[in-house]
Amino acid sequence: RAPRVSGVRVAPDSAVYAFVADLVDADTDGVADYIAMRGFSGVALATVYHAARDLLPHNPRRVVAHRTEGAYYFESDPTLYTDRLRPPTHDPSTSTDFGRVTDALTKHGLDWQAWTVYLHNCRLAIDYPEYSVTNAFGDKYVTDLCPSSEAVAAYAADLTADVARLAPSVIVAESLHHASFGHGYHHE
Shortest CA distance to 65 belongs to which of 78, 75, 74, 56? Predict the structure, then answer.
């Protein structure tokens, strides 16, 4: 399904990872066309992500982006969440653009994948310490929810339902496990 570009064919299941704001900053239609013409089949679009500081040398509006901790980049449906753990926040500056971006990707023949970070969420781990990872010494980690918790498992299922209603081609599930100690806190 991927088009040939200069005799090169990118794998039909290849995707570029991106954030809504980055596509909007650089002209959504232009970026979608550029990605499609390079032979990629889709874009893994961040739906929920952790804090980060990213370098964006090709972004025409900003070179450095600070990602909000535990932000939802789409308008979530809080009625889908069955337990105490609920979406902590969404980024209002991008959630209104989410549908516009997915429409543009589809228009250019690209699948969009829902890149979703589940349990590596400082905001929820801090707000709900009873559901955070606890080490062998009793220390609570403010970086991750504990996948062994029934409430956390319910949150993961509810988040999946929330993202699935957006009809992505696939959900790219990140952080559904116990993270290693070395994974760290915020990301550069």
Answer: 56
Look at the pTM and tell me if it is higher than 0.85: yes
Question: Which burial class, exposed, middle or buried, applies to 142 when counting CB atoms under 10 A from its CB (0-12, 13-18, 19+)?
Answer: middle
In whole angstroms, give the CA distance from residue 98 to residue 79. 20
Residue of 94, 112, 122 lying closest to 17 (CA atoms): 112
Total length of the chain: 188
Q: Mind listing the pLDDT tens digit for each residue in 136-159?
A: 999 999 889 999 999 999 999 999
User: What's the CA gap between 15 and 26, in Å, rounded?
Assistant: 18
Q: Could you tell me which residues come within 8 angstroms of residue 162 by beta carbon, excluding any fewer than 6 positions away?
A: 76, 77, 80, 81, 87
> Whole-angstrom Cα distance, residue 79 to residue 152?
17
